[in-house]
Structures are given as structure tokens and as C-alpha cells.
Amino acid sequence: MKIAGIGCRPGASVEALRDALLRVLMIAGPVEGVATIPARAAELRALSLPLILVEVAGIETPTQSPRIQALHGTGSVAEAAAIAACGKDAVIIAARVTSACGTATAAIAESPESP
């Protein structure tokens, strides 16, 4: 299973979300769906892709943002969401990338089994 995790600032545009997603897909190829935190569901529904809502607090991530750690309890919403959606054996295969405008991030995790 391969899932893209997406993080974004409130009100991020569809273009920013697509940009971050396309950048990470160029690194790791197609995914089965996208994951994010419940607070960002409205922004991601605009992508019209299968959406998985997850909790990310306490999930260790390869990249760290002090701002995101303070807000969400993890270093990267995108990486943590991808890991959470793939399950406990998931690994990040494409670390967090940022959209050109800086309002959205995406990462991809992969797991050999479904959660």
C-alpha cells in the first residue's frame, strides 16, 4: 500500500495542493489515496481523490518543523499522515516536499500490508 500524506495551511488553494502532490508523485510514483488530519479535510476534498483522515500526534517523522510540532505534535503533518494511513510497518519513501507557494506539503509512505 502506498499513500500520499498532505499537510497545508488553512485555506490552501487547490493549485497549491496539486503542486505539492505532483512534486511528490514525480519522486515515488502513483498512490492509492491521500491522507491528512481532520482539520484539513475541506481543503483536500477539492482534489477529488480517495481521502483518509488520520490523527498524527506522536508519530515520528524524518523531517521536523518546530511550528508543526507545536501545533500538531509531530514534525510533519504530511509524513505523519502518510505513515498513519499505511499502518505501523510503513516507511517514508518520499520525504516531505513543499508546493511552490509554500502553503502545502506532501510525502509518500509505503507499507507491505493494509492498516
What does this structure look like?
This protein has helices at residues 14-28, 41-45, 66-72, 77-86, and strands spanning 2-8, 33-36, 51-53, 91-98, 104-110. The chain has 115 residues and is of the alpha/beta class. It has one domain (2-110): CobE/GbiG C-terminal domain (Nucleotidyltransferase, domain 5), CATH 3.30.420. A five-stranded mixed beta sheet has the order 3-2-1-5-4.
Number of individual domains: 1
Query: What characterizes the major β-sheet?
Result: 5 strands, mixed
Instruction: List the strand order in the largest sheet.
Output: 3-2-1-5-4
Q: Which fold name corresponds to the CATH topology?
A: Nucleotidyltransferase, domain 5
Number of strands: 5
- Fourth-tier CATH superfamily name: CobE/GbiG C-terminal domain
Mean pLDDT: 93
Shape: globular
What Rg is obtained from the alpha carbons, in whole angstroms? 12 Å
Helix and strand sequence:
EHEHEHHEE
Q: What gap, in angstroms, lies between the N and C termini?
A: 9 Å
Number of helices: 4
What fraction of residues sit in β-strands? 25-35%
Please mark out the parts with pLDDT under 50 across 5 or more consecutive residues, or reply none: none
